[in-house]
Amino acid sequence: MSKRLMSKNSQNELSKPKKHWSMGLVESMKDADLIYKDSDRIVVIRDKYPKAKIHFLVLPKENITSIYKLTTKDVALLQEFGEILKMIQIEHKNHHLNAGFHAVPSMQRLHMHIISKDMVSPCLKTKVHWNSFTTALFKPYNDVLEELKKYGSIKEVANEEYKTLKSAPLKCNQCSYVPKNIPQLKEHLLTHL
Ligand code: AMP
Ligand code: ZN
Question: Which CATH architecture group holds 20-192?
């Protein structure tokens, strides 16, 4: 179709540069339906594809792409993440919440997951989803804060270790049960509710 035959609106749509999917969190930080809390430096949003009954993401307004870009000057920012975590834990007293960062994140903009340990959600579908929250691929908040204070940076996980952990055998995060597959694991998780 020639440009002359297009409506003004569709011309505008075409001229907008399309955002890469990995920028989705930066868009969601502006979405009033997803925002849960907001401060001068931080936004907390609801995860759009939650992997448990409670699943929030804590993000800085400053454009820090990942934990691997953190430096000593960001210790105070990370401590603010901890204060928000405490607040959210108080608000959800009846749930055990874990907080941490994925060693190999898929989305841009630093984000801390706050996720309930039940891991009961229709969005939890794959072994990679499971292992990214239940193995060393999930770096607990306190460990990241301590590493940053001690070394001034966060060490990246080696590619070989990443491959091993993401394909590690499934294991329940609340008991010693070893399911054969994801449907079995999901059924089992309901017994812990
Ligand atoms: P990761 O980068 O692996 O640490 O995790 C990214 C998280 O962002 C996942 O838990 C996704 O469910 C979530 N997610 C993906 N796209 C969006 C979006 N557009 N808005 C909010 N959450 C998202
Ligand atoms: Zn179990």
Answer: 2-Layer Sandwich (3.30)
